[in-house]
Amino acid sequence: MSSEDSPKIIVERNGLYIVRGSIPLVEKSEEMSEFGEPLSWATGKELRSSGNYALCRCGKSNRKPFCDDTHEEIGFEGTEAADTGPISDRWKTFSSPEIVIQDDHSLCMHSGFCGNRITNIWKMQADGDDSEVLAEITAMIDRCPSGTLAYILEPGGEIVERDLRKEVAIIRDGPIWITGGIPVERSDGQPLETRNRVTLCRCGASSKMPLCDGSHKEIGFTAP
Description:
2 domains, 12 strands, 4 helices, five-stranded mixed β-sheet, 224 residues, alpha+beta, globular, four-stranded mixed β-sheet
């Protein structure tokens, strides 16, 4: 496979995302409880299965999620401010005998899977010796799309990550969710750290571009 065919996402300066390497593009949405709490992810239709494609980054395209060059018409400023260093330099560690939770809140996109109306994973950690509670904590962290949260299950152990396929998912009213360790390259050619889970801004308002920082919720961004 040539470098042109290898899976990669390239951020264009003040422009779009170029997705190379025939990465499947699908729709995803949160399945909610009766209380409006996210429970799981639902996968919708597949939008692309092969070839290269261009995705909107400014949030104004009339062909969302695809780019229609509106960024040029509106003079979109997409200055990239995301930290390119390793996540391990930013983690805050919460330890208990049963589970170590690693938290880099700079990546948080406020999906809400880390808690509910009653509790959250940090409070639940104290009861991690209960196998059902521990299973619920790990499931909640596994659903975190941005990789803000991760966990270790034994002293001195490795981060536990689900095996996610290489995929680009469009979250309804939210960001672009990248899974499977797909490289993301800034417009200056410098790479972001390649991770199993990454969320990219598509509302045009993030202060940590190209990464999502939850601004889509603050501005009321809506898009399929």
